[in-house]
Specification:
Layout (H helix, E strand, L loop, with lengths): L6 H12 L4 H8 L3 H10 L17 H12 L4 H8 L3 H10 L2 H4 L2 H12 L6 H4 L1 H12 L4 H11 L10 H9 L10
Helix pairs in contact: 2-3, 4-8, 5-6, 11-12
């Protein structure tokens, strides 16, 4: 079974690696295998990802609890929005995406929001097979990501789905967690 690491443990791995501690020593201190440490570092290109934090505009667990209580007391969506100082559309979408007025549960809604915000999101090249094949074809011809991006913009100006930035191509090549382009 795959060992899951907490954010604190992953931070420890990156900090230890940056300080010159080897895979085996890091693995020993976390009671795991060196291969797991290598995987953590490889999946992010060896760069410590920024810590996850929720945007201030997103609903908090306490606001979701308040929504649940106010829904139970039969207040309207507009009244709930007014109490929370939020837009009625925000409250309406929150309630609808989480089983409606009757079955709304704050903890479930909060867990769902965290799950949906999780990164990495599917890469553009994973979602668009035609674009992926074109990019791979041009990479095999030793084109740079900048050339590919510019060529696509010039040859297919009206097809917005066939646009990709050079940075996205670079990230897809170098970050193994984006497995859209196979590494050789």
């Amino acid at each position: 079974m795959k060992r899951m690491f907490t954010a604190i443990e992953k931070g420890f791995v990156f900090d230890s690696w940056k300080n010159g501690i080897g895979f085996s020593a890091i693995a020993k201190s976390l009671d795991t295998k060196p291969g797991n440490i290598l995987t953590i570092l490889r999946d992010s290109g060896g760069i410590k990802p920024p810590p996850r934090k929720r945007a201030p505009s997103h609903l908090t667990l306490s606001e979701r609890e308040e929504i649940r209580v106010l829904l139970s007391s039969k207040l309207s969506i507009r009244a709930i929005a007014s109490v929370l100082g939020r837009s009625p559309s925000t409250i309406s979408r929150e309630v609808q995406r989480n089983r409606g007025r009757r079955y709304y549960k704050a903890v479930d809604a909060n867990n769902r929001a965290s799950r949906m915000a999780r990164r990495p999101k599917p890469c553009l090249l994973e979602r668009n097979q035609e674009l992926k094949e074109l990019v791979l074809e041009k990479l095999q011809l030793n084109w740079s990501p900048e050339q590919i991006s510019g060529w696509l913009r010039k040859t297919m100006p009206r097809r917005k789905t066939m646009r990709i930035s050079a940075e996205t191509i670079y990230k897809t090549i170098y970050f193994r967690s984006r497995s859209a382009l196979h590494h050789s």
